[in-house]
Amino acid sequence: MNNNLKHLIELQKIDSRLLDITDLRGDLPIKVEELADQLAKAKENFKGNEERINDITASIKKETNAIEDASSKLEKLKNQLYLVKSNKEYDALNFEIDHLKESISESENVILDLEEEKENINKENESYKSNIDDATKDLGEKNTELELAMSKTEKEESDLNKNRIKIVDQIDNKLVSTYNRLRKTKDGLGIVNIMSNACGACYTQLPRQTIIEVKNSIDVISCPNCSTYLFFDEELS
Fold first, then answer.
1. Taking CA 61 as the corner, what is the angle to CA 60 and CA 67, rounded to the nearest 5 degrees?
2. Are the beta carbons of 111 and 60 closer than 8 angstroms?
3. Can you tell me whether residue 89 is helix, strand or coil?
4. How far is 103 from 97, CA to CA, in rounded Å?
5. Disulfide engineering: 135 pairs with which of 39, 76, 90, 166, CB 3.0-4.6 Å?
6. Tens digits of per-residue pLDDT, 85-139?
7. pLDDT tens across 24-48, in order?
8. Nearest C-alpha neighbor of 31 from the set 146, 151, 150
9. Rounded Cα gap, residues 226 and 186, in angstroms
10. 189 touches 181 (CB < 8 A)
């Protein structure tokens, strides 16, 4: 038998078993990844909200200080009204008093808006906390399931991958490249046994000459219909 052909058959056996191992884990790896992403996003949103709350708190303090400062000035100006001696001075004081009152009102409105935003963010963060707790719990459970599933086949998978590397090194690079490309589009199959004179991948009846060449095992032959590599093993046919 052609050495490339022989090693391609061995490679297919290894890859098929690796696929079986992957199937045994089901969608656990995907679920673990999804839960990890959900958890990371919830934590990121929670952190962003906490930072915004800190900014709001600082802004409220700033506006509160501005109100206190303006109120103090306002009180002094009101007291000065009783001491003025001219209408011009009286009008100037009233203008400044009105300006301070307007400033205080604006700061009070800003504080009200900030307090409302802060309340909404706190409610949102309660939801994020719940999501984080749920995702953390689910992720822990799924990780445990995945680790258990992996532990059962971990050594076998490691040995298979090591053997795969050794076998690949013994096959012509072009054949390996085509084999890998075929596997991506043929449900993991790069080389198949012919069954009842038909391709084991697409089930197309093969020309007589192709069957003869495949059975002779002198060269690596492809299915004329789907291009999958072919071999013949009477025990499997």
1. 90
2. yes
3. helix
4. 10
5. 39
6. 899 999 999 999 999 999 999 999 999 999 999 999 999 999 999 999 999 999 9
7. 778 888 889 999 999 999 999 999 9
8. 146
9. 9
10. no
